[in-house]
Specification:
The chain has 396 residues and is α+β, with helices and mostly antiparallel strands. Helix content is 23%, strand content 33%.
Length: 396
């Protein structure tokens, strides 16, 4: 049976509309930012503990009222503090999945889902509850069990079915997979991917797991200290973080210090390249000068932070094809593996750069290229400067 065919008839009533949110407050905790999520899109809120991710989720669910803000879903106004509008949670049509399931221990899986269907005739509740549980891949026998007789992954499927049975206009996932072991977690990822093909509603996910966010989300919202710092696709944010703090929060491995030396040709506005001096962690020059993209926003001599993704670092057989025809070009580096760690099918390695004390390149490889990282001695590394992203260092 296809995913579409497995969805209960009730799913036809699911609202189809985008989420738009803007909030602002200073007390009792700061909270500020704007975000949007299209129907069928999954938006992941990422950041450290205390960043405000769950607070934003609570504002969406109507469990917390910001001092100032506006929330609309599918054109319906859920919150507008300027007009005195604030719909209570029961009128917001939100499906909420918690980290620890929040199931009724004395009820069966089917009866737990039926709690979301009190608005329909009693005879219809069991049919709809069973249909949703079948859709999240629980057998009829498992549907009759109480939560204590189900695995963690199965309990989370019940919680998801309960949220969807409400026919929500918005689905909120508050770290829903963190209490599930890795093996069952991948199955839940696959289930969520299947559901997204059918349910055309915005989905907002709170997670501490950056790998999970990159795997599941269409876009990321990076938060810190209650504020939205940056939002965009995972690729955009990892390749071009707005500042050094964002780079840290999303786990960019290769971040370095530098000094901006100026454009290649100041008189030629068409030349979008400039010179970046690579500095060691103590501020001393490494002797490397990189030709990188110039966005015409930096002063000559200005201290900068720059990042580069691992995709831009080429080793072994990759060196021959590195930067072929690239607009900016490559720089050849001499490095030595000083630490390595096997991570299942991949190997993570730290490389010391020749002539640059304290500078470390971080590379992950799978397949035959792992052998290059296992060898002793010096190896050639090509850095594709087209991937370098330069950010000014904030002062004062």
């Amino acid at each position: 049976m296809s995913p579409a065919a497995a969805v209960p008839d009730a799913a036809d009533a699911v609202c189809d509309g985008a989420l738009h949110m803007q909030v602002q407050q200073d007390r009792p905790m700061p909270l500020a930012g704007e975000l949007s999520c299209a129907p069928g899109e999954l938006l992941a809120l990422v950041g450290p503990s205390g960043a405000g991710k769950t607070s934003l989720l609570r504002c969406l669910a109507g469990l917390m009222h910001p001092h100032s803000g506006r929330i609309t879903v599918g054109g319906q106004v859920w919150l507008d503090t300027a007009r005195g509008v604030c719909l209570p949670p029961q009128r917001r049509h939100v499906g909420l999945v918690f980290q620890h399931y929040a199931l009724m221990p004395h009820l069966s899986a089917r009866d737990n889902v039926a709690l979301s269907l009190l608005h329909v005739p009693r005879a219809e509740r069991a049919r709809r509850a069973s249909a949703w549980l079948e859709h999240v891949r629980l057998s009829p026998e498992q549907q009759r069990r109480r939560p204590a007789a189900l695995s963690g992954g199965q309990q989370q499927r019940v919680a998801l079915a309960r949220a969807l049975a409400r026919e929500p206009a918005l689905l909120l996932l508050d770290e829903p997979f963190s209490a599930v072991d890795q093996m069952n977690r991948q199955g839940l990822y696959d289930l969520l991917a299947d559901l997204r093909q059918v349910l055309r509603i915005p989905i907002v996910l709170v997670t501490h797991d950056l790998a999970e966010a990159r795997q599941l989300a269409d876009r990321l919202v990076v938060m810190d200290a209650g504020r939205v710092l940056q939002q965009g696709t995972p690729e955009q944010i990892y390749r071009s973080p707005r500042n050094a703090r964002v780079a840290d929060l999303v786990g960019v491995q290769n971040r370095f210090a530098g000094r901006w030396l100026g454009p290649l040709a100041p008189q030629d506005e068409a030349d979008a390249a400039g010179w970046l001096e690579w500095l060691a962690s103590d501020g001393t020059p490494t002797g490397q000068r990189l030709r990188v993209r110039d966005k015409r926003r930096l002063r000559v001599g200005q201290r900068v932070t720059w990042v580069v993704q691992g995709d831009a670092l080429h080793i072994g057989a990759e060196v021959q094809e590195a930067c072929a025809g690239g607009p900016i070009g490559c720089v050849a580096l001499r490095a030595q593996v000083v630490a390595r760690r096997n991570l299942g099918e991949t190997t993570f390695a730290e490389l010391a750069l020749d002539g640059a004390p304290g500078v470390r390149l971080r590379i992950t490889r799978a397949g035959p290229q792992r052998r290059v990282l296992l060898a002793d001695g010096w190896l050639e590394v090509r850095l594709d400067c087209d991937w370098v992203h330069v950010m000014p260092v904030r002062t004062g």
